[in-house]
Amino acid sequence: MPELHTKKVDAVIIGSGLAGLLLANQLVDAGRRVLIATKGELLDSNTRYAQGGLAAVLKDGVTDSRQAHLKDTIKSGAGLVDEAVAEQIINGGAELVEKLSALGVHFDKTETGSHSLHLEGGHNSPRVLHSKDTTGKTIAEGLVNSLKARAKDPNDLDRPIILENTFALDILHFQATPLAPRVATGVLLLTDEGVLSVAATYIILATGGAGQIFTRTTNPKVATGDGIALAARAGAKLADLEFVQFHPTAFCKEGQPAFLVSEAVRGQGAILVDDRGHRFAFDFHNDGELATRDTVAKAIHQTMADRNLESVYLDMRPIGTSAEIEAKFPNIVETLRKLGVDPVCEPIPVCPAAHYYMGGIAADAKGQTSLLGLYALGESAATGLHGANRLASNSLLEAGVMALNLAKYINSQPFKAIPYKKNAKLTEAWFAHCRPFAVPADRSELKALMYRGAGLVRDAASLTNLEKQLDTISIYKTGIDRYDRESANMLLVAKLIVKACSLRQESRGGHVRSDFPTANNSAFLHHITFEKGAWRTQSAGSSLFTSTERAVSLARQ
After folding, report:
1. Is 485 known to be catalytic?
2. Active site residue: 32, 216, 266, 293, which one?
């Protein structure tokens, strides 16, 4: 058994995307003792791969406003957006841009010095800030550089602890009596030196999405749903688990990765055509290529099915000259050329791929979950901002504003000793009671089964069969091998997705049922939640983090 180490900090952050990195920077600046752990390197996250940009209205004006942004967000969310949360996050966009700029993150400007704004699908005005077509990389590198500079300062007593190649095994939690509230007290981390038990007042999950559960995904290898699995095992409330967004335009060529071709290229004039050269998007919606992502993805899927195609084609040439295309989208052009397609000379084969998880850990706009001390930020959280379908470039907005909200909350609280100092006993108990856990016998088979049975389009037969297949491929293991534990997380989240898809017998946003092809507001205008083994429903329009939970949380503080 690996050697056990212990450490105490004010806040432990799991994950190093925009949410985790920005929160860490803000807390360190306020003198908080912070440990940030990531299972790869600090730059390994979905944030790094975000091409399009950050949707934000910097000030209300004649052509755009925060209210207009809210309206577009609500429309995209297909009836399940929490308007109060959405308004709060959208209103925080301007401050987020200011904070990022102060930390060395710079967005493209026009010749007059104002921010250059893109138009993307679902938006009725250009409001997406960008840094060429590598916006996420620019943000991640700026935040990482800022954090590492603080970590290297030997005179800084509050310098952050950065642990790379570190895997979160489980959340430690404490419950005094069966009727008492459950409290998160720390986390177990698997490091190169052994197992580290970290006690903290604030435990933050900023672990990103779960795209790697599907064969075709735009997500990096680290996106395996770990935070959602950690929260589920700790008994936290989850929500909207059936809503997986499939990005319409991922590169589609056998043997090649599903490289994301940003929505921004369609905003600049790229068009979708089938094998005949027919521009088909307007056959499905008046907004054509600039309809919301779920609409465009379904249009592509239907066109492929009707014409028995392996892909459709995205043509970037209407954007302008070769020089103009290369100047606006240098990374996309370079990457596609390496993959064997020159987008300035020929159309790009594309088809949908798993991209963003609207579901996750139920949380409010500052990340508070149903467990005291446990917070979830960004893609790992389900706040109700996205509803059933995320509006383009609202993901970086949500991650950043949530991080700022939580930083303000934590920094407004008094410095205090770590509560519930029982982590050593809890750690011993965890090892003593570690029972065999289920993993897929073959991870690639799990991914293939999920893509076929619970991909963009599902039905009762495919989901029922998939549930049986997931049980069939499950085997049991013990120990704390990282690969096995990660595989277990993937299997758990996969099963939760399949069950939620089965329960929602309608089509809404990113959830498409071929046997129930339309939305059914009379029966399904609600959220589906999961907590401590029980599935429930919660009416649309109410906060996923309910008033009862909020009252209990405040009472615990």
Report:
1. no
2. 293
